[in-house]
Design a protein that fits this description.
alpha/beta, Rossmann fold, three-stranded mixed beta sheet, 13 helices, 12 strands, 16% strand, globular
């Protein structure tokens, strides 16, 4: 049995689905079901006794302790987080509560549980923190990619809150001996991603004939990682990672935002042609505050030590992603509620042109 937190969100739900497709080992899935957590992501697991869903908050220490006592997992994987930079700019308090205080309460409950284990159960237990490359800050065009030894330099409330949680995880390993693992991933994309993020936002706006917003000059660079590859990397770290270690998981696909948007428009032109080319909808908007210029991941450590590397190309992953959104219009309608439209208005329309 493993315990997954945030397992109804984008990356968490993809992980749970991949895990149960590959393993007989059950999953207890704890998720608060905030705006980005969606049980519809897990519809295919209805009636599957290997998936036990519990609605709750990692900041609820008593609930977490109860779940640990009742299910006695051999590992805890923390996907639960507020995860959008723009939302952290508009309202940082929730990021502090979930990403810092929630992670602390989760660590405390796990430490108490682990301390009560004995023998092989204690030696084999793992706590895995899923984090982000954004904790490392921003790179210049000629800088080497982020390595696990790169100093943290977060530039947004979101990144700072994740950095704080990562430091707590490290401290619990060095102070208490809790067998922790941390993964720092590059930008994920794929099925079930909430449409506040760039790739699904572009797809949905384009299909609706709405303006496709691009921040600033559109030349901010990210390393793009297909979510299935990320999940397989996490599984490999859980299986063979060394306690106390950090592993960067990247897609080796550096692209600037404008290139990503233009690629999406070209794929949509092919798969769902409209009267005019979708690229005509591109609209430049004022850049967000503290927008990091470039992220890039050096995934050499996980390749050398654990034999993992991304399998999906950017071109292949984008086609799969566009195809998924085209085939799942009902899912999209279910998550693009009035609250979502209000957020889009606050973040993009009121930002103004670049």
């Amino acid at each position: 049995m493993i315990l997954v937190t945030g397992g109804a969100g984008f990356i968490g739900s993809n992980f749970v689905l991949q895990w149960l497709a590959a393993h007989a080992e059950p999953v207890v899935n704890l998720d608060k079901l905030t705006y980005a957590g969606n049980l519809r992501n897990l519809d295919s697991l209805r009636g599957d006794a290997r998936h036990v869903f519990v609605r709750g908050d990692i900041d609820d220490a008593e609930l977490v302790a109860q779940l640990l006592r009742a299910h006695r997992p051999r590992a805890v994987l923390n996907f639960a987080a507020e995860s959008h930079v723009d939302r952290s700019i508009l309202g940082p308090a929730e990021f502090v509560r979930t990403n810092i205080h929630g992670a602390f309460n989760l660590l405390e409950a796990v430490r108490a549980y682990w301390s009560g284990l004995a023998g092989e159960a204690k030696r084999g237990f793992r706590f895995l923190q899923i984090s982000t490359d954004e904790v490392y800050g921003s790179l210049a065009a000629g800088d080497a990619p982020f390595r696990e030894t790169t100093a943290y330099a977060p530039n947004s409330p979101y990144a700072a809150s994740k950095a704080a949680a990562d430091h707590m995880v490290r401290a619990y390993y060095h102070t208490y001996g809790l067998p922790t693992l941390t993964t720092n991933c590059s930008n994920n994309y794929g099925p079930f991603q909430f449409p506040e993020k760039l790739i699904p936002l572009v797809i949905l706006n384009a299909l609706a004939g709405k303006a496709i917003p691009v921040y600033g000059d559109g030349l901010n660079v990210r390393d793009w990682l297909y979510v299935d590859d990320h999940c397989s990397g996490i599984r490999k770290v859980l299986e063979a990672g060394q306690p106390g270690a950090v592993y960067n998981i990247g897609g080796n696909s550096e692209k600037n935002n404008l290139e990503v948007v233009q690629t999406l428009c070209a794929v949509l032109d092919e798969l769902r042609p409209a009267a005019t080319r979708y690229a005509s909808l591109i609209s430049y908007v004022k850049d967000r505050p503290g927008h990091d210029r470039r992220y890039a991941i050096d995934a050499g450590k996980i390749r050398r030590e654990l034999g993992w590397q991304a399998a999906e190309s950017f071109a292949g992953g984008i086609r799969r992603t566009v195809g998924w959104y085209l085939a799942h219009a009902e899912w999209t309608r279910s998550v693009t509620s009035g609250a979502y439209q209000k957020w889009v208005s606050a973040n993009y329309q009121e930002r103004g042109a670049a």
